[in-house]
Every structure is written in structure tokens, then in C-alpha cells.
Design goal:
Pectate Lyase C-like
Length: 205
């Protein structure tokens, strides 16, 4: 009888410890999210990273949606947000150069004046994103969905950007991008003219 009671107590205590551990782990995740959002909100509207890159990575790692986030004027060089949900987010005048936004959902995002030089948008969803005055030189848009993008005629620079397989582009966007130095299989197949090569090389990035 005593042996049975001891076994019962052992398993009861084990279940209680497992429950306590699970609660503690969940609490730690909640605290982590709180701290990350605190950093992002505290640095809103300020230049520099201010810890936002690490905070964003933490939220993404835990599967938190970043929809509607405001990152205006933030310095986010090399930020990695692949497959992030950034619908209706605002990155006006932000500087996420070399950012990894492959597969990210940027539907309705406000990218006016953003500096996304050499950023990776492969497979990203850019429906109705506003690209007015954006710097997109050397960025990769391969396979990106550009349905109804806004302000593409006012893009500040798109030279050397890759637009291979860009999907649902508004009429005229691909031609505009090529004329301003973007590349794809069509432009790469064109005969190389000395003057054109010179202009492509020294066009502002």
C-alpha cells in the first residue's frame, strides 16, 4: 500500500512540475513579447536601430504578427524578416538596406521614401504597397506579387534591381523598371551597347 502511495505521489508531483514548467515557459514568452513591443514603441519615430532589429527578430521567431507596425525613420540595416506578416505596416523613410523580406506579406504597406537598397523581396506580397520615392536599387523582386502597387512611377531609384518573374505587375511597371536599370532575363539577353553599359554602371544607386 505504501509503495502504491509513493508511486502516486511521484507521478502527481511530476505532473505538477510539468504544469509549473509549462506555465513558466508561457510566462517567459509573454514577457519576451512585452519587452520586444516596449522597445519598438519606445523608439518610435527615432533614428537608429535602438534595439528594434533584435526585438523584431524575437517577435518573428515566436510567430507574432507585425501587421500595422510603425517603423517610420528606423535604421534597420540587415534586418531579417522573411515571411513576416507586415500588412498595413509603415516604414516611411526607414533604412532597412540589405533587409531580408523574402516571402513577407506587405499588402498595403506604406514604403514612401524607404531605403531598401539590396533588399530581398523574393516571393513577397506587395499588393497596394506604396513605393513613392522609394530607393530600391539592387533589390531582388524575383517572383514578387506587385498587384496594384502604388507610386511606382515615382520610385526614386531601381537600377540593378532584379525583377525576374515579378507577378501581376500593373501595366507599364516592368517597362518603367527596365528603362531605369532593373534587370531580368529580357534585359540580360539584349545586345550590350557601350553607351548603355556605361549608363547602367554609373546610374545612381
Amino acid at each position: 500500500m505504501a509503495r502504491s502511495f509513493s508511486a502516486y505521489q511521484f507521478w502527481k508531483n511530476r505532473r505538477e512540475r510539468n504544469t509549473a514548467d509549462a506555465i513558466a515557459a508561457q510566462r517567459a514568452i509573454i514577457d519576451s513579447h512585452y519587452q520586444a513591443w516596449r522597445v519598438i514603441n519606445r523608439t518610435h519615430g527615432k533614428g537608429g536601430s535602438g534595439g528594434r532589429i533584435e526585438a523584431l527578430a524575437d517577435l518573428l521567431r515566436n510567430g507574432v504578427s507585425l501587421a500595422g507596425i510603425n517603423l517610420d525613420d528606423a535604421w534597420l540595416e540587415n534586418v531579417a524578416l522573411p515571411n513576416a506578416k507586415l500588412t498595413r505596416s509603415s516604414l516611411q523613410r526607414a533604412k532597412p538596406a540589405n533587409a531580408d523580406l523574402a516571402g513577407a506579406d506587405l499588402e498595403g504597406a506604406d514604403l514612401r521614401g524607404v531605403e531598401l537598397v539590396a533588399a530581398n523581396f523574393s516571393g513577397a506580397y506587395l499588393k497596394r504597397a506604396n513605393l513613392t520615392d522609394a530607393r530600391l536599387s539592387a533589390a531582388t523582386f524575383d517572383g514578387a506579387d506587385s498587384t496594384d502597387v502604388i507610386g511606382w512611377r515615382q520610385i526614386r531609384s531601381i537600377s540593378h534591381a532584379s525583377i525576374e518573374g515579378i507577378r501581376h505587375a500593373p501595366a507599364g511597371l516592368v517597362a518603367f523598371a527596365r528603362e531605369n536599370g532593373a534587370v531580368d532575363s529580357v534585359t540580360m539577353a539584349e545586345p550590350a551597347h557601350e553607351l548603355d553599359s556605361f549608363l547602367r554602371t554609373f546610374r545612381a544607386i
